[in-house]
Design a protein that fits this description.
Length: 510
Protein backbone atom coordinates (compact mmCIF):
# COMPACT_ATOMS: atom_id res chain seq x y z
CA UNK A 1 0.00 0.00 0.00
CA UNK A 2 1.16 3.48 -0.61
CA UNK A 3 -0.21 6.85 0.23
CA UNK A 4 -1.43 9.59 -1.99
CA UNK A 5 -0.68 12.60 0.11
CA UNK A 6 2.47 13.23 2.09
CA UNK A 7 2.64 15.65 5.00
CA UNK A 8 3.93 18.34 2.72
CA UNK A 9 0.77 18.03 0.68
CA UNK A 10 2.15 17.40 -2.79
CA UNK A 11 -0.60 16.86 -5.26
CA UNK A 12 -2.81 19.22 -3.31
CA UNK A 13 -1.06 22.46 -4.14
CA UNK A 14 2.01 24.31 -2.92
CA UNK A 15 3.85 23.14 0.15
CA UNK A 16 2.75 24.97 3.22
CA UNK A 17 5.15 26.73 5.51
CA UNK A 18 5.37 25.72 9.12
CA UNK A 19 7.11 26.86 12.28
CA UNK A 20 10.54 25.55 13.11
CA UNK A 21 10.88 23.99 16.51
CA UNK A 22 13.64 25.23 18.80
CA UNK A 23 16.69 23.21 17.80
CA UNK A 24 19.44 21.73 19.88
CA UNK A 25 17.69 18.68 21.27
CA UNK A 26 18.12 16.39 18.28
CA UNK A 27 20.37 13.35 18.31
CA UNK A 28 24.11 13.93 18.29
CA UNK A 29 25.64 14.77 14.95
CA UNK A 30 28.04 12.44 13.25
CA UNK A 31 29.42 11.83 9.83
CA UNK A 32 32.41 14.10 10.09
CA UNK A 33 35.79 12.90 11.25
CA UNK A 34 36.71 14.17 14.69
CA UNK A 35 39.45 16.76 14.43
CA UNK A 36 38.29 18.07 11.05
CA UNK A 37 36.24 20.81 12.59
CA UNK A 38 33.11 21.23 14.69
CA UNK A 39 30.51 18.54 14.27
CA UNK A 40 27.33 19.87 12.76
CA UNK A 41 24.08 19.17 14.49
CA UNK A 42 21.08 18.09 12.48
CA UNK A 43 17.40 18.23 13.05
CA UNK A 44 15.02 15.37 12.35
CA UNK A 45 11.71 16.29 10.71
CA UNK A 46 8.88 13.76 10.84
CA UNK A 47 5.31 13.65 9.61
CA UNK A 48 3.20 10.61 10.44
CA UNK A 49 0.40 8.86 8.58
CA UNK A 50 -1.69 6.69 10.85
CA UNK A 51 -4.27 4.28 9.42
CA UNK A 52 -6.93 3.57 12.01
CA UNK A 53 -9.39 0.68 11.51
CA UNK A 54 -12.78 1.85 12.74
CA UNK A 55 -14.66 -0.15 15.35
CA UNK A 56 -17.81 -0.76 13.33
CA UNK A 57 -19.88 -3.95 13.21
CA UNK A 58 -19.77 -4.06 9.41
CA UNK A 59 -17.56 -2.93 6.53
CA UNK A 60 -17.56 0.51 4.88
CA UNK A 61 -19.72 -0.30 1.83
CA UNK A 62 -21.39 -3.66 2.57
CA UNK A 63 -22.94 -5.65 5.41
CA UNK A 64 -20.01 -8.08 5.85
CA UNK A 65 -18.65 -8.46 9.36
CA UNK A 66 -15.72 -6.23 10.36
CA UNK A 67 -13.83 -8.70 12.57
CA UNK A 68 -10.20 -9.61 13.11
CA UNK A 69 -9.05 -13.23 13.17
CA UNK A 70 -11.97 -15.00 11.43
CA UNK A 71 -11.24 -17.83 8.98
CA UNK A 72 -9.88 -16.44 5.69
CA UNK A 73 -12.42 -15.30 3.08
CA UNK A 74 -15.47 -15.90 5.25
CA UNK A 75 -16.50 -12.24 5.59
CA UNK A 76 -16.90 -11.46 1.89
CA UNK A 77 -19.67 -10.58 -0.57
CA UNK A 78 -19.98 -9.32 -4.16
CA UNK A 79 -19.42 -5.69 -3.04
CA UNK A 80 -16.16 -6.17 -1.13
CA UNK A 81 -14.95 -8.69 -3.72
CA UNK A 82 -15.52 -6.06 -6.41
CA UNK A 83 -17.74 -8.29 -8.56
CA UNK A 84 -19.26 -6.61 -11.63
CA UNK A 85 -22.63 -4.99 -11.06
CA UNK A 86 -22.32 -4.70 -7.27
CA UNK A 87 -22.89 -1.27 -5.74
CA UNK A 88 -21.56 0.26 -2.51
CA UNK A 89 -23.80 1.55 0.31
CA UNK A 90 -22.03 3.88 2.75
CA UNK A 91 -21.95 2.83 6.41
CA UNK A 92 -23.34 5.76 8.46
CA UNK A 93 -21.65 4.54 11.63
CA UNK A 94 -18.24 4.78 9.91
CA UNK A 95 -19.01 8.37 8.91
CA UNK A 96 -20.00 9.16 12.48
CA UNK A 97 -16.76 7.69 13.87
CA UNK A 98 -14.75 9.64 11.29
CA UNK A 99 -16.55 12.81 12.42
CA UNK A 100 -15.73 12.01 16.05
CA UNK A 101 -12.07 11.72 15.11
CA UNK A 102 -12.25 15.07 13.32
CA UNK A 103 -13.88 16.78 16.29
CA UNK A 104 -11.46 15.22 18.78
CA UNK A 105 -8.52 16.44 16.68
CA UNK A 106 -9.97 19.97 16.40
CA UNK A 107 -10.46 19.62 12.65
CA UNK A 108 -12.92 21.35 10.40
CA UNK A 109 -15.45 18.58 9.70
CA UNK A 110 -16.99 19.18 6.32
CA UNK A 111 -18.65 17.97 3.14
CA UNK A 112 -16.54 15.33 1.43
CA UNK A 113 -16.48 13.20 -1.66
CA UNK A 114 -15.04 9.77 -2.40
CA UNK A 115 -12.49 9.13 -5.13
CA UNK A 116 -11.14 6.01 -6.77
CA UNK A 117 -7.41 5.55 -6.25
CA UNK A 118 -6.25 3.22 -8.99
CA UNK A 119 -3.42 0.77 -8.67
CA UNK A 120 -2.89 -2.94 -9.05
CA UNK A 121 -2.18 -5.17 -6.11
CA UNK A 122 -3.59 -8.66 -5.54
CA UNK A 123 -4.98 -7.83 -2.09
CA UNK A 124 -7.30 -5.25 -3.66
CA UNK A 125 -10.06 -7.00 -5.58
CA UNK A 126 -11.39 -3.95 -7.47
CA UNK A 127 -7.91 -2.72 -8.50
CA UNK A 128 -8.86 0.60 -7.01
CA UNK A 129 -9.32 1.77 -3.47
CA UNK A 130 -12.24 4.00 -2.56
CA UNK A 131 -10.65 6.85 -0.64
CA UNK A 132 -10.97 10.60 -0.24
CA UNK A 133 -8.67 12.91 -2.15
CA UNK A 134 -8.99 16.67 -2.45
CA UNK A 135 -12.20 16.95 -0.43
CA UNK A 136 -11.62 14.90 2.73
CA UNK A 137 -14.09 14.87 5.63
CA UNK A 138 -11.66 16.36 8.21
CA UNK A 139 -8.98 19.03 7.65
CA UNK A 140 -6.74 21.43 9.60
CA UNK A 141 -6.65 20.20 13.17
CA UNK A 142 -4.09 19.65 15.89
CA UNK A 143 -3.18 17.28 18.65
CA UNK A 144 -1.62 18.35 21.94
CA UNK A 145 0.98 16.08 23.57
CA UNK A 146 1.31 15.60 27.34
CA UNK A 147 4.35 17.92 27.37
CA UNK A 148 2.19 20.72 25.93
CA UNK A 149 3.64 20.66 22.40
CA UNK A 150 1.21 20.63 19.47
CA UNK A 151 1.36 18.65 16.25
CA UNK A 152 -0.74 19.90 13.34
CA UNK A 153 -3.17 17.55 11.62
CA UNK A 154 -3.39 18.14 7.89
CA UNK A 155 -6.32 15.82 7.23
CA UNK A 156 -8.13 12.73 8.46
CA UNK A 157 -10.03 11.06 5.64
CA UNK A 158 -12.24 7.99 5.21
CA UNK A 159 -11.20 5.09 3.01
CA UNK A 160 -11.54 1.34 2.72
CA UNK A 161 -8.87 -1.13 3.79
CA UNK A 162 -7.37 -3.70 1.42
CA UNK A 163 -7.30 -7.44 1.94
CA UNK A 164 -4.11 -9.04 3.19
CA UNK A 165 -1.51 -11.22 1.49
CA UNK A 166 0.46 -13.98 3.09
CA UNK A 167 3.65 -15.02 1.36
CA UNK A 168 4.61 -18.61 2.11
CA UNK A 169 8.23 -19.75 2.03
CA UNK A 170 11.34 -17.57 1.89
CA UNK A 171 11.48 -14.95 4.61
CA UNK A 172 7.77 -14.11 4.53
CA UNK A 173 8.16 -11.32 1.97
CA UNK A 174 7.02 -11.65 -1.62
CA UNK A 175 10.60 -12.07 -2.87
CA UNK A 176 11.66 -15.72 -2.79
CA UNK A 177 8.19 -16.85 -1.65
CA UNK A 178 7.02 -20.26 -2.95
CA UNK A 179 3.45 -19.04 -3.28
CA UNK A 180 1.11 -16.38 -1.88
CA UNK A 181 -2.32 -16.55 -0.28
CA UNK A 182 -4.83 -13.73 -0.16
CA UNK A 183 -7.53 -13.10 2.44
CA UNK A 184 -10.30 -10.61 1.56
CA UNK A 185 -11.85 -10.44 5.04
CA UNK A 186 -10.13 -7.08 5.58
CA UNK A 187 -11.05 -5.72 2.13
CA UNK A 188 -13.56 -2.93 2.63
CA UNK A 189 -13.01 -2.51 6.37
CA UNK A 190 -13.45 1.20 7.20
CA UNK A 191 -10.29 3.21 7.85
CA UNK A 192 -9.55 6.76 8.77
CA UNK A 193 -6.12 7.89 7.62
CA UNK A 194 -4.78 10.63 9.88
CA UNK A 195 -2.01 12.70 8.29
CA UNK A 196 0.06 14.95 10.55
CA UNK A 197 1.99 17.98 9.44
CA UNK A 198 5.80 17.65 9.53
CA UNK A 199 5.85 19.14 13.03
CA UNK A 200 7.52 16.24 14.83
CA UNK A 201 11.20 16.72 15.70
CA UNK A 202 12.35 13.48 17.33
CA UNK A 203 11.67 9.77 17.62
CA UNK A 204 10.49 10.33 21.15
CA UNK A 205 7.98 12.99 20.10
CA UNK A 206 6.73 10.65 17.35
CA UNK A 207 6.11 7.93 19.91
CA UNK A 208 4.34 10.39 22.19
CA UNK A 209 2.16 11.50 19.27
CA UNK A 210 1.08 7.96 18.35
CA UNK A 211 0.53 7.10 21.98
CA UNK A 212 -1.66 10.16 22.55
CA UNK A 213 -3.52 9.64 19.27
CA UNK A 214 -4.17 6.03 20.22
CA UNK A 215 -5.50 7.11 23.64
CA UNK A 216 -7.88 9.56 21.95
CA UNK A 217 -9.09 7.01 19.38
CA UNK A 218 -9.80 4.49 22.12
CA UNK A 219 -11.46 7.11 24.37
CA UNK A 220 -13.92 8.16 21.65
CA UNK A 221 -14.72 4.56 20.69
CA UNK A 222 -13.30 4.89 17.17
CA UNK A 223 -10.68 2.15 17.53
CA UNK A 224 -9.67 -0.74 19.78
CA UNK A 225 -6.11 0.64 19.51
CA UNK A 226 -4.53 -2.78 19.00
CA UNK A 227 -1.34 -2.10 17.07
CA UNK A 228 -0.40 -5.79 17.21
CA UNK A 229 -3.59 -6.67 15.27
CA UNK A 230 -3.03 -3.90 12.74
CA UNK A 231 -5.85 -1.71 14.06
CA UNK A 232 -3.39 1.19 14.02
CA UNK A 233 -0.71 1.22 11.32
CA UNK A 234 1.93 3.91 11.18
CA UNK A 235 4.05 5.18 8.29
CA UNK A 236 6.70 7.81 8.99
CA UNK A 237 7.88 10.47 6.56
CA UNK A 238 11.40 11.28 7.69
CA UNK A 239 13.82 13.96 6.52
CA UNK A 240 16.78 15.79 8.02
CA UNK A 241 18.26 19.26 7.75
CA UNK A 242 21.02 21.24 9.45
CA UNK A 243 19.88 22.48 12.85
CA UNK A 244 18.40 25.93 12.52
CA UNK A 245 17.40 25.55 8.87
CA UNK A 246 13.80 26.14 7.88
CA UNK A 247 14.01 24.27 4.57
CA UNK A 248 12.50 20.81 4.27
CA UNK A 249 14.91 18.09 3.17
CA UNK A 250 14.03 15.26 0.80
CA UNK A 251 12.01 12.71 2.73
CA UNK A 252 11.65 8.96 2.75
CA UNK A 253 8.51 7.18 3.80
CA UNK A 254 9.22 4.34 6.23
CA UNK A 255 6.61 1.58 6.33
CA UNK A 256 5.97 -1.51 8.40
CA UNK A 257 6.09 0.12 11.84
CA UNK A 258 4.03 -2.19 14.01
CA UNK A 259 4.90 -0.91 17.46
CA UNK A 260 5.95 2.28 19.23
CA UNK A 261 9.37 0.71 19.71
CA UNK A 262 9.79 0.05 15.97
CA UNK A 263 8.60 3.57 15.22
CA UNK A 264 11.23 5.16 17.44
CA UNK A 265 14.06 2.93 16.29
CA UNK A 266 13.18 3.35 12.61
CA UNK A 267 13.09 7.16 12.81
CA UNK A 268 16.46 7.35 14.59
CA UNK A 269 18.02 4.94 12.11
CA UNK A 270 16.56 6.63 9.04
CA UNK A 271 17.53 10.15 10.14
CA UNK A 272 21.10 9.00 10.84
CA UNK A 273 21.28 7.26 7.45
CA UNK A 274 20.13 10.38 5.62
CA UNK A 275 22.48 12.70 7.48
CA UNK A 276 25.40 10.41 6.77
CA UNK A 277 24.58 10.57 3.05
CA UNK A 278 24.36 14.36 3.09
CA UNK A 279 27.59 14.72 5.05
CA UNK A 280 29.29 12.51 2.46
CA UNK A 281 28.11 14.88 -0.27
CA UNK A 282 25.50 12.48 -1.60
CA UNK A 283 21.80 13.09 -1.80
CA UNK A 284 18.71 11.46 -0.31
CA UNK A 285 16.48 9.76 -2.90
CA UNK A 286 12.76 10.12 -2.24
CA UNK A 287 11.45 6.59 -1.88
CA UNK A 288 9.49 4.15 0.21
CA UNK A 289 11.61 2.18 2.66
CA UNK A 290 10.74 -0.80 4.81
CA UNK A 291 11.76 -1.16 8.42
CA UNK A 292 13.46 -4.45 9.16
CA UNK A 293 13.03 -4.97 12.89
CA UNK A 294 15.47 -7.89 13.11
CA UNK A 295 18.28 -6.04 11.31
CA UNK A 296 17.47 -2.68 12.90
CA UNK A 297 17.61 -0.82 9.59
CA UNK A 298 15.45 0.47 6.77
CA UNK A 299 15.79 -1.05 3.31
CA UNK A 300 14.85 0.50 -0.01
CA UNK A 301 11.38 -0.37 -1.31
CA UNK A 302 10.23 1.38 -4.45
CA UNK A 303 10.46 4.90 -5.73
CA UNK A 304 7.59 6.99 -4.44
CA UNK A 305 4.50 7.34 -6.62
CA UNK A 306 3.14 10.77 -7.30
CA UNK A 307 -0.54 11.52 -6.99
CA UNK A 308 -0.97 11.47 -10.79
CA UNK A 309 0.16 7.83 -10.87
CA UNK A 310 -3.10 6.87 -9.17
CA UNK A 311 -5.46 8.39 -11.75
CA UNK A 312 -7.79 9.70 -9.05
CA UNK A 313 -11.33 10.36 -10.18
CA UNK A 314 -14.60 10.85 -8.28
CA UNK A 315 -16.33 7.59 -7.34
CA UNK A 316 -19.44 7.57 -9.56
CA UNK A 317 -21.38 5.11 -7.39
CA UNK A 318 -21.39 7.30 -4.26
CA UNK A 319 -22.90 10.72 -3.63
CA UNK A 320 -21.04 13.45 -1.70
CA UNK A 321 -21.34 13.19 2.09
CA UNK A 322 -22.55 16.34 3.77
CA UNK A 323 -23.08 15.69 7.48
CA UNK A 324 -24.73 19.06 8.08
CA UNK A 325 -24.59 21.29 11.14
CA UNK A 326 -27.09 19.34 13.27
CA UNK A 327 -25.25 16.03 13.01
CA UNK A 328 -21.91 17.72 13.64
CA UNK A 329 -23.30 19.35 16.81
CA UNK A 330 -24.67 16.04 17.97
CA UNK A 331 -21.31 14.31 17.47
CA UNK A 332 -19.44 17.14 19.20
CA UNK A 333 -21.76 17.11 22.20
CA UNK A 334 -21.51 13.32 22.57
CA UNK A 335 -17.70 13.29 22.75
CA UNK A 336 -16.37 12.02 26.07
CA UNK A 337 -13.73 13.98 27.97
CA UNK A 338 -10.42 13.55 26.11
CA UNK A 339 -7.13 12.47 27.70
CA UNK A 340 -5.66 16.01 27.67
CA UNK A 341 -8.64 17.41 29.56
CA UNK A 342 -8.59 14.45 31.95
CA UNK A 343 -4.91 15.13 32.70
CA UNK A 344 -5.76 18.79 33.36
CA UNK A 345 -8.61 17.89 35.67
CA UNK A 346 -6.59 15.38 37.70
CA UNK A 347 -3.52 17.64 37.82
CA UNK A 348 -5.63 20.44 39.28
CA UNK A 349 -7.23 18.16 41.87
CA UNK A 350 -3.92 16.58 42.90
CA UNK A 351 -1.82 19.74 42.82
CA UNK A 352 0.58 18.24 40.27
CA UNK A 353 1.56 18.98 36.66
CA UNK A 354 -0.36 17.40 33.76
CA UNK A 355 2.79 15.46 32.83
CA UNK A 356 2.98 14.18 36.42
CA UNK A 357 -0.43 12.53 36.16
CA UNK A 358 -0.10 11.27 32.57
CA UNK A 359 0.46 7.63 33.57
CA UNK A 360 -2.65 7.55 35.74
CA UNK A 361 -4.82 8.87 32.91
CA UNK A 362 -3.17 6.59 30.35
CA UNK A 363 -4.00 3.59 32.54
CA UNK A 364 -7.57 4.83 32.97
CA UNK A 365 -7.14 5.14 36.74
CA UNK A 366 -8.05 8.83 36.98
CA UNK A 367 -11.65 8.27 38.10
CA UNK A 368 -10.40 6.09 40.94
CA UNK A 369 -7.89 8.72 42.04
CA UNK A 370 -10.34 11.62 41.70
CA UNK A 371 -12.86 9.82 43.91
CA UNK A 372 -10.21 9.36 46.60
CA UNK A 373 -9.11 13.00 46.41
CA UNK A 374 -12.66 14.29 46.62
CA UNK A 375 -13.13 12.14 49.73
CA UNK A 376 -10.20 13.96 51.31
CA UNK A 377 -7.18 11.80 50.41
CA UNK A 378 -3.84 13.49 49.77
CA UNK A 379 -3.60 14.10 46.01
CA UNK A 380 0.08 13.41 45.54
CA UNK A 381 -0.08 10.15 47.49
CA UNK A 382 -3.24 9.02 45.67
CA UNK A 383 -1.52 9.59 42.30
CA UNK A 384 1.61 7.78 43.47
CA UNK A 385 -0.21 4.74 44.77
CA UNK A 386 -2.21 4.52 41.50
CA UNK A 387 0.77 5.07 39.19
CA UNK A 388 2.95 2.55 41.03
CA UNK A 389 1.20 -0.08 43.14
CA UNK A 390 -2.16 -0.16 41.31
CA UNK A 391 -0.44 0.05 37.91
CA UNK A 392 1.64 -2.99 38.84
CA UNK A 393 -1.54 -5.14 38.92
CA UNK A 394 -3.95 -3.88 36.26
CA UNK A 395 -6.06 -7.03 36.41
CA UNK A 396 -6.53 -6.41 40.10
CA UNK A 397 -7.22 -2.74 39.40
CA UNK A 398 -10.38 -3.69 37.52
CA UNK A 399 -11.71 -5.39 40.66
CA UNK A 400 -10.47 -2.74 43.08
CA UNK A 401 -13.27 -1.18 45.11
CA UNK A 402 -12.85 2.63 44.87
CA UNK A 403 -14.21 3.10 48.39
CA UNK A 404 -11.65 0.64 49.79
CA UNK A 405 -8.84 2.39 47.88
CA UNK A 406 -9.95 5.72 49.38
CA UNK A 407 -10.11 4.21 52.86
CA UNK A 408 -6.58 2.84 52.56
CA UNK A 409 -5.24 6.24 51.52
CA UNK A 410 -7.00 7.95 54.41
CA UNK A 411 -5.47 5.45 56.86
CA UNK A 412 -2.04 6.23 55.48
CA UNK A 413 -2.70 9.99 55.46
CA UNK A 414 -3.71 9.81 59.14
CA UNK A 415 -0.48 8.01 60.02
CA UNK A 416 -2.32 4.83 61.01
CA UNK A 417 -0.37 2.87 58.40
CA UNK A 418 3.17 3.50 57.23
CA UNK A 419 3.99 3.66 53.53
CA UNK A 420 5.48 0.17 53.61
CA UNK A 421 2.41 -1.24 55.34
CA UNK A 422 -0.01 0.58 53.05
CA UNK A 423 1.74 -0.84 49.97
CA UNK A 424 1.47 -4.37 51.33
CA UNK A 425 -2.21 -3.97 52.16
CA UNK A 426 -2.89 -2.46 48.73
CA UNK A 427 -1.16 -5.37 47.00
CA UNK A 428 -3.43 -7.75 48.90
CA UNK A 429 -6.53 -5.71 48.04
CA UNK A 430 -5.55 -5.89 44.36
CA UNK A 431 -4.91 -9.62 44.52
CA UNK A 432 -8.02 -10.69 46.42
CA UNK A 433 -10.04 -7.68 47.57
CA UNK A 434 -10.98 -6.94 51.17
CA UNK A 435 -11.29 -4.09 53.62
CA UNK A 436 -7.98 -2.27 54.24
CA UNK A 437 -8.59 -1.88 57.97
CA UNK A 438 -9.28 -5.61 58.42
CA UNK A 439 -6.35 -6.59 56.21
CA UNK A 440 -4.03 -4.34 58.21
CA UNK A 441 -5.32 -5.72 61.51
CA UNK A 442 -4.92 -9.32 60.29
CA UNK A 443 -1.27 -8.59 59.55
CA UNK A 444 -0.79 -6.91 62.92
CA UNK A 445 -0.10 -3.60 61.23
CA UNK A 446 -0.22 -0.49 63.35
CA UNK A 447 1.89 2.54 62.95
CA UNK A 448 4.23 2.87 65.91
CA UNK A 449 3.56 5.43 68.58
CA UNK A 450 5.72 8.52 68.19
CA UNK A 451 7.49 7.85 71.48
CA UNK A 452 8.54 4.36 70.36
CA UNK A 453 9.93 5.72 67.09
CA UNK A 454 11.81 8.46 68.97
CA UNK A 455 13.35 5.85 71.27
CA UNK A 456 14.54 3.83 68.26
CA UNK A 457 16.02 6.92 66.62
CA UNK A 458 17.88 7.93 69.79
CA UNK A 459 19.24 4.40 70.22
CA UNK A 460 20.58 4.40 66.65
CA UNK A 461 22.18 7.82 67.03
CA UNK A 462 23.99 6.55 70.11
CA UNK A 463 25.07 3.34 68.32
CA UNK A 464 26.42 5.09 65.20
CA UNK A 465 28.26 8.26 66.27
CA UNK A 466 30.33 8.45 63.06
CA UNK A 467 27.29 8.47 60.78
CA UNK A 468 25.55 10.87 63.11
CA UNK A 469 28.42 13.36 62.82
CA UNK A 470 28.18 13.17 59.03
CA UNK A 471 24.41 13.73 59.17
CA UNK A 472 24.87 16.75 61.42
CA UNK A 473 27.50 18.04 59.06
CA UNK A 474 24.84 18.15 56.32
CA UNK A 475 25.59 14.87 54.49
CA UNK A 476 22.10 14.00 53.26
CA UNK A 477 23.24 10.60 52.02
CA UNK A 478 23.33 9.30 55.59
CA UNK A 479 19.60 9.94 56.00
CA UNK A 480 18.86 6.72 54.15
CA UNK A 481 21.23 4.85 56.43
CA UNK A 482 19.30 5.88 59.55
CA UNK A 483 15.85 5.50 58.02
CA UNK A 484 16.79 2.03 56.75
CA UNK A 485 18.05 1.00 60.20
CA UNK A 486 14.85 2.19 61.89
CA UNK A 487 12.71 0.41 59.29
CA UNK A 488 14.63 -2.78 59.78
CA UNK A 489 14.42 -2.58 63.57
CA UNK A 490 10.67 -1.93 63.43
CA UNK A 491 9.85 -4.25 60.51
CA UNK A 492 8.57 -1.33 58.49
CA UNK A 493 6.15 -0.12 61.13
CA UNK A 494 7.77 3.28 61.52
CA UNK A 495 6.87 6.11 59.17
CA UNK A 496 9.93 7.03 57.06
CA UNK A 497 9.04 10.71 56.92
CA UNK A 498 8.52 10.85 60.67
CA UNK A 499 11.97 9.30 61.15
CA UNK A 500 13.56 11.88 58.84
CA UNK A 501 11.78 14.70 60.68
CA UNK A 502 13.00 13.35 64.02
CA UNK A 503 16.58 13.13 62.76
CA UNK A 504 16.47 16.74 61.60
CA UNK A 505 14.97 17.84 64.91
CA UNK A 506 17.72 16.05 66.87
CA UNK A 507 20.41 17.54 64.64
CA UNK A 508 19.09 21.07 65.19
CA UNK A 509 18.89 20.57 68.95
CA UNK A 510 22.37 19.08 69.31
MN1 LIG B 1 -4.38 5.39 3.05
ZN1 LIG C 1 -18.80 -7.50 1.71
Amino acid sequence: MSEQVGPSGEGLGPRRAYETAPGGDGPPAFGEEPGLGPRRAYETVVGLEVHCELRTATKLFCACRNAFGDDPNTNVCPVCLGLPGSLPVLNARAVELAMRIGEALHCEVRRSIFHRKNYFYPDMPKDYQVSQYDEPINVDGWLELPDGSRVGIERAHLEEDTGSNRHVGGDGRIHNADYSLVDYNRAGVPLVEIVSRPDIRSAEQARAYVSELRAILVAIGASDGKMEEGSLRVDANVSVRPAGSDQLGTRCEVKNLNSLRSLGRAIDHEAARQWELLQAGERVVQETRHWNEAQGRTVSGRSKEEAYDYRYFPEPDLVPVDPGEAWRDEVRRALPMLPAARRERLARAAGLSPAGVATVVELDLDTLVLAAISAGADGRRAVNRAANEVAADLDGARRLDPAAFTKLLLLEDAGKLTATQAKQVLAEMLASGGDPEELAAARGFKAMEAAEVAAQVDALIAAHPGEWERFRGGDAKVTGFFVGKVMKATQGKADGRAVTALLQERAELS
